[in-house]
Every structure is written in C-alpha cells, then in structure tokens.
Amino acid sequence: MAPPFRPGTPARTPNKRPVSVTKPSPKRRKISGEDDRGARTKSPGSGATRKPPGSGARTKSPGRGALSGLGKSYNSKSPGKSPTPSLKMKGDAGGDVDMKGVAANNKSPADRKARKELAEVRKKKRKPNYDLEKDVVSLWEKTRQRNIKKDDRSKLVTEILKKMEGKLPDMAVNHIMARALQTCVKYCTPAQRESIYNELRPHCLTLAKDTYAYHLVIKMMEHANKNQLQQMLSLLHGNVVALLRHPNGSPVLEQAYLSANAVQKQELLAEFYSPEFRLFKGMITAGKGRVVDLLATEPAAKRRAVLEHMTLALQPILEKGIVDHSIIHRAIVEYLSISKKSMIQEVVQQLSGALLVRMLHTRDGAKVGVTCVMHGSNKDRKKIVKGMKGHVSKIARDEHGSMVLLSIFDVMDDTQLATKVIIKEIMKDLQELVLHKNGRRVILYLLAPRVTRYFPPDILAVLEPPAPVDSTNWKPEGKGAIDKDEEEEDEDGVVGVGKKDPLLRRFQLLVTSGLAKELADVCRVHARELLHSQWGTDVIFEVAMGGANSELWKAAPSEVTAVHKAISSLVALPQISMDVDDKPEEHVMEGYFSSRTIRRLILESQLPPSGVDAESFSAIFWSTAIKGNCKRWAKGHSAKVVSAFGACADEHTKLAAKAELQVLIDEGTLQMGPAFSHQSSEKAQ
C-alpha cells in the first residue's frame, strides 16, 4: 500500500523516476544564503552543503510549527500556486477571530482608552502606592515652576509631606518620589525638615546604597543643622570604608566629609588607620588627628599594623577606580606620609596614567599627584604625562592641578614628550591662560621659577621634593628600638630630582619648544588687554624683562623689542578712548595695574646681555613715549611712571631724562624721592 501523499515531499510512482513537486509556502522574505526554494546553500569557505528539498532530504511539513494555527488551504492540484493563508485564529469561545478586524479596532479612540484603563489597573495591582505617587507627582510639578511664589510653594510642600507621612522610607526608593522628597527637604520649614530626618534617620544607611535614595541622603546632609549632621555621621560610624567601596555610597560619604568639621573629618578618616577606630568612638583627641601624630609615641609593631590595615582598606578602592572623592585623597596622603619609598612606588605605579588626572581637583589630590611625579621613575612620569593628554588646559586653570604641571617642569627629563603633550596644548589656549589667575602660573614658572611674588609659600612647600620616611630616624619615645626590617632603605637615588640640568630643561621647555616666540607674539598683539588685566600684567612684565636668565633675549631679541615698542605705542593713544562696547576705557598711563607695571619695567629693566644688539625698555619708552611729554603725565597714576625715570636701572636713560624731570621738580609739578634730590645736589656741586 502506497504511503499517503504529503505536500512538499516527492511523489513516488512505481517503475518511474521520482518527480520533484514544488513546495507551496506562504510568501516571505528570502533570507540571505537561501536559494529560490528556501533551502540553505553552501557559502564560500563553509562546511558541507545542505541538501535542498526534493533531493532526498526530509523537510518540515508546512502544517507544523509557527503556521499550525492558520489552517491548511493548499491545493495539491495546483502546485505552482501559493494561496494566501486566512488570518483567522481560534477565539476564547472556540470561534474564529478575524485579526484584521482586531487591528482596525485597536486604532479607534475607544479601544485606546480601554487599553489605557487596563494599564492603570495593572499598575495599581503592581504598585500599592500608585494613587499616592500620582497625586504627589502632580503637586511636585507645580513646585518646580520658576515663577511660583514662595508661599504657594510652601503650601504645596506641606501638602506633599502630609500625603507621604509615615511612608517616607518606601517613597525614597522610588526614582520620582526621591526627587520630590529632595524638593521638600530644600524648601520645607525647619520643623518639617526635622520630622523628615526623624522618619528617615534609622534607614539612612540602607538608603545610602540605593540607586535613587542616595541622592536624597546627600540633600539631607546639605541642609542639615549641626545636631542633625552629627546624628547622621554617627550612623556612618564603622561603615566608612565599606561605603567608599560602594558606587552609590561613596558620594554620600564624600558629602558627609565635606559637611563635617575638622574633628568629624578626622573621625571619618581614622577608620582607615585601625579596627580600633572603627569599633570605638571618641578615640581622636584634639591636635592629634593625623596618622603621624597618632603614631609618634607608638612602637614599630603598631606602625606596621596601621600600614597593613590602610593597605587592605585602600587597595580595593584604588582597584575599582573610585578616586574622585576628597576623603580618599586625604586618606592616600596620610598613607604616603608613613610609607617607605618602596611602598610609595607601588602606589605611584597604580595611579600613574588617566587615574591620577581625576584626583587633581583637590589640594590633597594635587599633593598625591606631586608625590607621584617626584617618586616615580621615568616610565611612571611618561605615563602620567600621557594621561594628561587632552586635559592640560583644564588642569592648568585649576588652582590645585596646576601644581602638578609645575612639578613636571622641575623633574621631567623627557622634554620632548612634555613639549608634545603639555607645551603644545598650552600654546593652543595661550591667550586665555595668560589672563587666568591660575593658568598664568604655569607660564610664569618657566619665565621666573619659584619667585615668591607669583608663587606663595604654600605652593612652594608642596613643590619641595618629598623625602620618604626614614625608618632609622623613627624613634618612638620610650618604646625601644625598631625592628631590622624597618631599617631597610631603598637606594634608587635622590627623590624628586631629575638627571638633566635644570637650566637646560627650562630652556628646552620654553625656547626650543617655540613657546617663547608664541608668548612674545601674544604679548605684542594683546599688550593693552594684558596691561589692564590683574593677572596678565605679570606675564607681559616677565616677557618684557626677557626671562629670568635672559632666555628670551638670547633666543628672540627682536620679539622682545617688539613687545617694548607695542607698550610704548599705547601711550600715543588718546587719553579717553572707547572699547568694543562703546564704554570709556582707561589709558595705560592712568590705569591702576597698567601704570604700576610700566613703572616697574622702567625701574628694573636693564641693558640686554652682551652679544644682543638691542636697547632696554626704559630707553625705548623714554624716546618714543615720554620725552617731551613729561608735563602732560605728571599728575595722577601716570606721575609715578614719569618719576620712575629718576631711579631706573639704565644709567644712560636716567641721565637723558634728568634735565626734563628737574624742570618739573623745580616748578613743583612733579614730586621725586629724596634719593633723586640728593643725587641732583651732588651733581650741582
């Protein structure tokens, strides 16, 4: 008996060759790699070719699988046709449901409303506080309006808190409710804020680790009074290190550290030192918060235990890359202050690169950066410089980050890499940097290094080469000698000192890199703006002086002379002029900063070094700007500029100006110092 016929399989007749019958199937998009019959074919470089239907391989019946619910409407008498299957499915009651009709009904407004109501019902089942959240959101949106009155916002905040009373811990973990609570904490009354704190305080540690609630905890710390902050800090006791390792908890602890006073900060930091400080409160005494002070009278074994505990606490934090917070920067500084050179180098190797750049925005982070530059090897310093690529201009503008650039100028022997990464990026924003309070220090450090006029003692103290702890000098009071392993010293040379000559290094960074000529051009083009600026005057003064060791005079004498002429040409401008916004602008001879800078240049400018054919600034300024016009400028701030010629360092210019100045002195128009009068009387005798 012959087997029953199935569509898609070859019909077999006795004593005849099998004839292939085309498989009818619904229309579908042809997949890449299939032939016209829908069979996979062999791609170039693949394995064995899969046999298409009709060649003896078994195929899946079209009545099975994904199309089984559409019914069979194939006509075996017409194998070439593939009729479209009927879009009917079995309904709940057993009848057929027309899918085309359902699709049409879904587009009607009534059906959309029904589906919306169904979604609301499902949300209410899934969220027990759905109605409450909906009401709070509507009120919260009103409080966020910019033009809302203070009294109206206060009423809305009161209504929101009244609705959420008793449910604040549950509401705080919701992403919208947490934001609404932050608004309430910001604008509520002190009594309302106290009630919020009382309800949320027992849950603060849990909320600090939540994805949404930790923002609320930060806001609570920002607006907390002294008592509320102290209570919240007491909840964090014993969990400082654990929270710092948590991605959500670390910002909470950072805010706690920033909001705390000096004693509270030391208590938070002390948990890095030893388990004793984590288990017991009140062990920090006034004046002994630093780890060096705590270990001053302790035995060597205690020091080793503290180092080991701090290493175990800081290592996971550094491995996770959580280095943006100031409390971590301070903990690293304390760790480095008691570590040996070998331990410091391990930290340097771990922080070298882009990780260190994220720490330079705080003072302690900058100290860590300077320590890494000083203690690092040439390879470590190269990694630090490469990690700054693209961020040099921002680092130079930062109050603390700029100190790391200064330390690189002190010890970096690879001046080619420093020029390629640091100097070239400085040259791109040179005009903005010379006018910036912190950015100008990076340039002034190359022109006049370590001049106390520009660099305060606290900055110079950070830039001093930090020496590692000498364990041979660590003598605890009355605790006996230190173990032999504590006396081991590293012998890698002097820390914080480069091998290259400092003058050669500075010449390569300033002159060879092309920074000197670029700087002189900026001072020439923007001389007026720099002279009127509080910070730009220092840069144009040092450029006009030719550098600390006359580097600019030797490398670019014509550019320095051009700066002198540009300053002198500004005197010829009218006394009352208009700026870009049509506002009156002070003359350089009458401006507060400009007049004092010009006077300083006249007093301190000297002849160029031997071998340079040029004149001093005082000679050029006298011959082109002041000569014959002394009476015009003998009043106000400009009188100080004119009188400076009587005490300038250039003797030739001083003698040339003496006759004209003496006339003004005799008339009483110009007042000079007693030294000038004494010199004049001696010449007369």
UniProtKB/TrEMBL annotation:
Top-level taxonomic group: Eukaryota
Composition-biased stretches (Basic and acidic residues): 89-99, 109-121
Gene3D superfamilies the UniProt entry points to: Leucine-rich Repeat Variant
Residue ranges of every copy of the PUM-HD domain listed in the record: 135-489
InterPro entries to which the protein is assigned, alphabetical: ARM-like, ARM-type_fold, PUM-HD, PUM3, Pumilio_RNA-bd_rpt
Polar residues: compositionally biased ranges: 73-85
Disordered: annotated segments: 1-126, 472-495
The Pumilio repeat ranges on this chain: 199-234, 387-424
Keyword set, alphabetical order: Repeat, Translation regulation
Transmembrane spans: none
Feature: compositional bias, Acidic residues: 484-493
SMART domains attached to this UniProt entry: Pumilio (SM00025)
PANTHER family referenced in this protein's UniProt entry, alphabetically: PUMILIO HOMOLOG 3 (PTHR13389:SF0)
Name under which the protein is recorded: PUM-HD domain-containing protein
